Amino acid sequence: MAAAFSSFAPFTILHALTIVMLVAATAIAIVIGRRLRGTRWLVPFDIAFAATALVMWVVEDAQHLLARPLDLAHALPLEVCDLEGLVLALTLFFRLPVFKALLYFWGIGLSSQGLFTPQLHDGPSSFHFWQFFFRHGGIVGGAIYLVAVHGYRPSWRDWRTATLLGIGYVLAIVVVDIGFGFNYGYVGNARPDQPSLIDVLGPWPWRVFLMVAAAVAVFALLMAPWALRARARSPR
Protein backbone atom coordinates (compact mmCIF):
# COMPACT_ATOMS: atom_id res chain seq x y z
CA MET A 1 0.00 0.00 0.00
CA ALA A 2 2.82 2.41 0.87
CA ALA A 3 4.43 1.76 -2.52
CA ALA A 4 1.15 2.64 -4.26
CA PHE A 5 1.22 6.10 -2.66
CA SER A 6 4.92 6.73 -3.19
CA SER A 7 4.96 6.41 -6.99
CA PHE A 8 2.79 7.43 -9.92
CA ALA A 9 2.09 5.86 -13.29
CA PRO A 10 -0.17 7.41 -15.95
CA PHE A 11 -3.45 5.83 -17.10
CA THR A 12 -4.13 4.18 -13.76
CA ILE A 13 -7.02 4.39 -11.28
CA LEU A 14 -4.99 6.90 -9.26
CA HIS A 15 -4.59 9.05 -12.37
CA ALA A 16 -8.33 8.90 -13.12
CA LEU A 17 -9.32 9.72 -9.53
CA THR A 18 -6.97 12.69 -9.52
CA ILE A 19 -8.53 14.07 -12.70
CA VAL A 20 -12.01 13.61 -11.22
CA MET A 21 -10.90 15.53 -8.13
CA LEU A 22 -9.60 18.40 -10.25
CA VAL A 23 -12.81 18.50 -12.32
CA ALA A 24 -14.83 18.69 -9.10
CA ALA A 25 -12.61 21.49 -7.75
CA THR A 26 -13.03 23.44 -11.00
CA ALA A 27 -16.81 22.96 -10.91
CA ILE A 28 -16.97 24.23 -7.33
CA ALA A 29 -14.91 27.33 -8.22
CA ILE A 30 -17.20 28.04 -11.18
CA VAL A 31 -20.37 27.62 -9.12
CA ILE A 32 -19.03 30.00 -6.48
CA GLY A 33 -17.83 32.49 -9.09
CA ARG A 34 -21.16 32.52 -10.91
CA ARG A 35 -23.02 33.04 -7.65
CA LEU A 36 -20.77 35.99 -6.86
CA ARG A 37 -21.19 37.67 -10.25
CA GLY A 38 -22.73 41.09 -9.90
CA THR A 39 -21.67 41.36 -6.27
CA ARG A 40 -18.70 43.03 -4.63
CA TRP A 41 -17.36 39.63 -3.58
CA LEU A 42 -16.28 38.38 -7.00
CA VAL A 43 -13.17 40.57 -7.12
CA PRO A 44 -11.85 39.30 -3.74
CA PHE A 45 -12.58 35.74 -4.86
CA ASP A 46 -10.64 36.31 -8.09
CA ILE A 47 -7.78 37.88 -6.14
CA ALA A 48 -7.66 34.88 -3.79
CA PHE A 49 -7.60 32.55 -6.83
CA ALA A 50 -4.84 34.60 -8.46
CA ALA A 51 -2.81 34.84 -5.25
CA THR A 52 -2.99 31.07 -4.76
CA ALA A 53 -1.81 30.52 -8.35
CA LEU A 54 1.03 33.01 -7.86
CA VAL A 55 2.18 31.39 -4.62
CA MET A 56 2.18 27.96 -6.29
CA TRP A 57 4.19 29.38 -9.19
CA VAL A 58 6.77 30.97 -6.88
CA VAL A 59 7.08 27.94 -4.59
CA GLU A 60 7.54 25.37 -7.36
CA ASP A 61 10.00 27.39 -9.41
CA ALA A 62 11.92 28.46 -6.31
CA GLN A 63 12.28 24.81 -5.31
CA HIS A 64 13.91 24.02 -8.64
CA LEU A 65 16.19 27.04 -8.57
CA LEU A 66 17.29 26.49 -4.96
CA ALA A 67 17.86 22.75 -5.31
CA ARG A 68 21.42 21.55 -4.83
CA PRO A 69 23.01 20.50 -7.05
CA LEU A 70 21.36 22.94 -9.42
CA ASP A 71 20.09 21.20 -12.58
CA LEU A 72 19.71 23.89 -15.22
CA ALA A 73 18.16 21.38 -17.62
CA HIS A 74 15.05 21.29 -15.39
CA ALA A 75 15.32 24.23 -12.98
CA LEU A 76 14.62 27.19 -15.26
CA PRO A 77 10.97 28.37 -15.53
CA LEU A 78 10.88 27.93 -19.31
CA GLU A 79 8.24 25.25 -19.78
CA VAL A 80 4.87 26.29 -21.17
CA CYS A 81 3.21 25.38 -17.87
CA ASP A 82 5.76 27.49 -15.97
CA LEU A 83 4.75 30.48 -18.06
CA GLU A 84 1.05 29.62 -17.87
CA GLY A 85 1.16 29.44 -14.08
CA LEU A 86 2.19 33.09 -14.09
CA VAL A 87 -0.27 33.97 -16.87
CA LEU A 88 -3.13 32.53 -14.80
CA ALA A 89 -2.36 34.87 -11.91
CA LEU A 90 -1.83 37.88 -14.20
CA THR A 91 -5.11 37.21 -16.03
CA LEU A 92 -7.14 37.20 -12.83
CA PHE A 93 -5.30 40.25 -11.48
CA PHE A 94 -5.36 42.45 -14.60
CA ARG A 95 -7.62 40.75 -17.22
CA LEU A 96 -5.61 42.08 -20.15
CA PRO A 97 -6.62 40.63 -23.56
CA VAL A 98 -3.20 39.10 -24.24
CA PHE A 99 -3.25 37.24 -20.91
CA LYS A 100 -6.79 35.99 -21.54
CA ALA A 101 -5.80 34.70 -24.97
CA LEU A 102 -2.75 32.88 -23.62
CA LEU A 103 -4.67 31.41 -20.69
CA TYR A 104 -7.47 30.11 -22.91
CA PHE A 105 -5.52 28.77 -25.89
CA TRP A 106 -2.26 27.72 -24.23
CA GLY A 107 -3.97 26.63 -21.01
CA ILE A 108 -6.59 24.35 -22.55
CA GLY A 109 -4.66 23.49 -25.71
CA LEU A 110 -1.21 22.86 -24.23
CA SER A 111 -1.19 22.67 -20.43
CA SER A 112 -3.98 20.08 -20.50
CA GLN A 113 -1.39 17.62 -21.82
CA GLY A 114 0.21 17.75 -18.39
CA LEU A 115 -3.01 16.26 -17.02
CA PHE A 116 -3.52 13.64 -19.72
CA THR A 117 0.12 12.51 -20.01
CA PRO A 118 1.81 13.66 -16.76
CA GLN A 119 5.59 13.67 -16.68
CA LEU A 120 5.57 12.62 -13.04
CA HIS A 121 6.90 9.73 -10.96
CA ASP A 122 6.08 10.83 -7.39
CA GLY A 123 2.88 9.52 -5.81
CA PRO A 124 0.37 11.11 -3.41
CA SER A 125 2.74 10.75 -0.47
CA SER A 126 4.94 13.39 -2.12
CA PHE A 127 4.21 17.12 -2.02
CA HIS A 128 5.39 17.29 -5.62
CA PHE A 129 2.45 15.12 -6.73
CA TRP A 130 -0.12 17.58 -5.38
CA GLN A 131 1.90 20.55 -6.55
CA PHE A 132 2.06 19.16 -10.08
CA PHE A 133 -1.62 18.33 -10.44
CA PHE A 134 -3.00 21.40 -8.69
CA ARG A 135 -0.78 23.62 -10.81
CA HIS A 136 -1.80 22.06 -14.12
CA GLY A 137 -5.39 21.66 -13.00
CA GLY A 138 -5.46 25.29 -11.88
CA ILE A 139 -4.28 26.47 -15.30
CA VAL A 140 -6.85 24.47 -17.26
CA GLY A 141 -9.56 25.13 -14.68
CA GLY A 142 -8.67 28.83 -14.68
CA ALA A 143 -9.19 29.00 -18.44
CA ILE A 144 -12.61 27.36 -18.09
CA TYR A 145 -13.41 29.68 -15.15
CA LEU A 146 -12.56 32.65 -17.36
CA VAL A 147 -15.16 31.51 -19.90
CA ALA A 148 -17.86 30.35 -17.46
CA VAL A 149 -17.65 33.13 -14.87
CA HIS A 150 -16.23 36.17 -16.67
CA GLY A 151 -17.88 35.49 -20.01
CA TYR A 152 -14.65 35.46 -21.99
CA ARG A 153 -15.34 34.85 -25.68
CA PRO A 154 -12.19 34.43 -27.77
CA SER A 155 -11.88 36.07 -31.16
CA TRP A 156 -9.76 35.25 -34.18
CA ARG A 157 -7.53 38.11 -33.07
CA ASP A 158 -6.96 36.26 -29.79
CA TRP A 159 -6.27 33.07 -31.75
CA ARG A 160 -3.70 34.92 -33.84
CA THR A 161 -2.08 36.39 -30.73
CA ALA A 162 -1.79 32.99 -29.03
CA THR A 163 -0.54 31.34 -32.22
CA LEU A 164 2.12 33.93 -33.02
CA LEU A 165 3.37 34.05 -29.45
CA GLY A 166 3.42 30.25 -29.42
CA ILE A 167 5.52 30.12 -32.58
CA GLY A 168 7.79 32.79 -31.10
CA TYR A 169 8.16 30.70 -27.94
CA VAL A 170 9.13 27.61 -29.95
CA LEU A 171 11.69 29.53 -32.03
CA ALA A 172 13.30 30.97 -28.90
CA ILE A 173 13.24 27.76 -26.87
CA VAL A 174 14.65 25.63 -29.71
CA VAL A 175 17.70 27.88 -29.73
CA VAL A 176 18.09 27.43 -25.96
CA ASP A 177 17.58 23.67 -26.17
CA ILE A 178 20.06 23.17 -29.01
CA GLY A 179 22.62 25.52 -27.50
CA PHE A 180 22.64 23.90 -24.07
CA GLY A 181 21.36 20.38 -24.72
CA PHE A 182 18.09 20.99 -22.85
CA ASN A 183 14.56 19.83 -23.64
CA TYR A 184 12.37 22.73 -22.51
CA GLY A 185 9.03 22.79 -24.27
CA TYR A 186 9.77 19.18 -25.35
CA VAL A 187 11.25 20.56 -28.57
CA GLY A 188 14.82 19.45 -27.85
CA ASN A 189 16.49 16.27 -29.07
CA ALA A 190 15.12 14.10 -26.25
CA ARG A 191 11.92 12.35 -25.30
CA PRO A 192 9.94 12.47 -22.02
CA ASP A 193 10.45 9.41 -19.82
CA GLN A 194 6.68 8.92 -19.43
CA PRO A 195 4.32 8.14 -22.36
CA SER A 196 3.23 11.21 -24.33
CA LEU A 197 2.02 12.31 -27.75
CA ILE A 198 5.62 13.03 -28.67
CA ASP A 199 6.17 9.27 -28.89
CA VAL A 200 4.11 9.10 -32.11
CA LEU A 201 5.44 12.23 -33.81
CA GLY A 202 8.59 10.73 -35.26
CA PRO A 203 12.25 11.72 -34.99
CA TRP A 204 13.72 15.07 -34.04
CA PRO A 205 13.90 17.74 -35.45
CA TRP A 206 11.00 16.99 -37.81
CA ARG A 207 8.59 16.30 -34.96
CA VAL A 208 8.97 19.94 -33.84
CA PHE A 209 7.19 21.05 -37.02
CA LEU A 210 4.44 18.50 -36.37
CA MET A 211 4.11 19.73 -32.78
CA VAL A 212 3.68 23.33 -33.96
CA ALA A 213 1.16 22.30 -36.63
CA ALA A 214 -0.79 20.23 -34.08
CA ALA A 215 -0.85 23.13 -31.61
CA VAL A 216 -2.11 25.56 -34.27
CA ALA A 217 -4.81 23.05 -35.23
CA VAL A 218 -5.86 22.59 -31.60
CA PHE A 219 -6.04 26.37 -31.16
CA ALA A 220 -8.28 26.53 -34.25
CA LEU A 221 -10.54 23.83 -32.79
CA LEU A 222 -10.78 25.82 -29.56
CA MET A 223 -11.75 28.88 -31.60
CA ALA A 224 -14.24 27.10 -33.87
CA PRO A 225 -17.27 26.98 -31.50
CA TRP A 226 -17.01 30.71 -30.78
CA ALA A 227 -16.58 31.57 -34.46
CA LEU A 228 -19.64 29.50 -35.36
CA ARG A 229 -21.58 31.09 -32.51
CA ALA A 230 -20.67 34.60 -33.67
CA ARG A 231 -21.56 33.72 -37.26
CA ALA A 232 -24.95 32.32 -36.22
CA ARG A 233 -25.73 35.49 -34.29
CA SER A 234 -24.62 37.91 -36.98
CA PRO A 235 -27.39 39.55 -39.06
CA ARG A 236 -27.79 38.10 -42.51
How does this structure look, described?
InterPro entries: CHP02206_TP0381 (IPR011737). Keywords: Membrane, Transmembrane, Transmembrane helix. The chain crosses the membrane at residues 12-32, 132-152, 164-186, 206-228. This is TIGR02206 family membrane protein. This protein has helices at 2-6, 13-36, 42-66, 72-75, 80-94, 97-111, 113-116, 127-150, 156-180, 206-233. With 236 residues, the protein is an all-alpha fold. It has one domain. Helix 3 runs antiparallel to helix 5 (80-94), helix 6 packs across helix 9 (156-180) and helix 6 (97-111) packs across helix 10. The radius of gyration is 18 Å and the shape is globular. The mean pLDDT is 94.
Summarize the structure.
By secondary structure, the protein is mostly helical. The chain has one domain (2-233). 72% of the residues lie in helices and 0% in strands.
Mean pLDDT, all residues: 94
Query: Main sheet?
Result: none
- Count of spatially separate domains: 1
- What structural class is derived from the secondary structure elements? mainly alpha
Strand and helix map with partners:
Layout lengths: L1 H5 L6 H24 L5 H25 L5 H4 L4 H15 L2 H15 L1 H4 L10 H24 L5 H25 L25 H28 L3
Helix pairs in contact: 2-8, 3-5, 3-8, 5-6, 5-8, 6-8, 6-9, 6-10, 9-10
